[in-house]
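anyone seen this seq b4? input:
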Amino acid sequence: MSTPQLIQGYEVVIGFETHAQLSTQSKIFSRASVAFGAEPNTQACAVDLALPGTLPVMNKGAVERAIEFGLAIGAHVAPRSVFARKNYFYPDLPKGYQISQFEIPVVQGGQIEFYLGDEKKAVRLVRAHLEEDAGKSLHEDFVGQSGIDLNRAGTPLLEIVTEPDMRSSDEAVAYAKELHKIVTWIGICDGNMQEGSFRCDANVSVRKPGEKLGTRREIKNLNSFKFMQQAIDYEVRWQIEQLEDGLAIQQATVLFDPDTGETRAMRTKEDSADYRYFPDPDLPPLVIAPEWIDEVRARMPELPRAMAARFVADYGLPEYDATTLTQSKAMAAYFEDAAKRSGQPKLVSNWIMGEISRRLNANAIGIEQAPVSSAQAAMVIGRIADGTISNNAGKQVVDALWNGEGQDVDALIEAKGLKQMSDTGALEKIIDEVIAANADNVAQYKAGKDKAFNALVGQVMKASKGKANPAQVNQLLKQKLS
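predicted toks r here
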């Protein structure tokens, strides 16, 4: 649990419920497709529509993805779990109930670990349970009425519920990003927030330190990390203002309006008793044998935390670098390939987190779409390490590769005349000329002023048109001035 950060004397308390759409080809209890973007009501079969006489059949792939998630977060995978009916009435819910899990979920406990700045955090999970999605009400395309699209009805979801362990919007967003990384890394969810594949609900309350938990309000369906932070920050300010004015907080479900930057109440928040849960009579208990768990564990990929630890051990990287480089599988693979090719892991790490990430962000693309391949990056870094080009020249080569001016690193270095001057005789001649022309700086350096030495180095670099090897310049200049 996090250290409290007080806002106007109040402690912020945040818990999350996240719906991750599982990456199966078909729905959780039917064979209907879950592909995104189909015409309304073209992917809802008789089971999804709850026509009389239809029965749900469990999707094995959805269960396996739940097992993978449980293993990834160090949770207990229940050998026996039970499906329940969550009863409520809404136009996009054909059955009049949602099949979910209540008393005995498939995944129990576990935690998500992440960094907030340099501080390591951990958020405990209560549970992760399997359930079906509802349909979707459409209001924008109709005048005076609403449409119902049941394509999403029956889509498999894993609802991931935390303890109220987060104490700031920064921490909440960092948690959500880490969870997003895990589910996409292990391939159980595509993480597309715009399409609704990864939807977060934030339960927010405030209290004076030492008091019992305040009344929470649930911000529904946050579909971007930016809006998530804005919504939580607004909600915290609103609740504090209410309490400071002597008003009580009413438990409610609220929506965030990104246009106004405000939350607004949608309905009073229900408690579990309002849903009248009871075991679903059409579905037997879900039994998961230890052998099945072992099979799933054997084919899981190396997890981000384990890979980060390996990067520290094998490549000597700082923990911060290793954590940053394992933000995605693609970035980790890019680093590892470039590090092996160049033999310069720390330099590769610096370039990925610096120059390459800067360009990726500017172009709003992922590293898997970078115009500079890991092999090309390794070649550039290798040429910097062996003194062929300077760091600055390396940036020019990356610019040329990025802009499609060529593919061969050495050819670009030659064409642009970027090779460093490493001929000792030629360098000594330039240094001698600089010393002769800068008697004042020479005298100041000999009097103990280091800035004068830097000025002389600058003059040498200028005279060589930036091609002199800085390390070699320093060495030769010191020899001549000693």
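The chain has a mean pLDDT of 92. The chain has three domains: 6-295, 302-415, 424-481. kinda curious what u guys think
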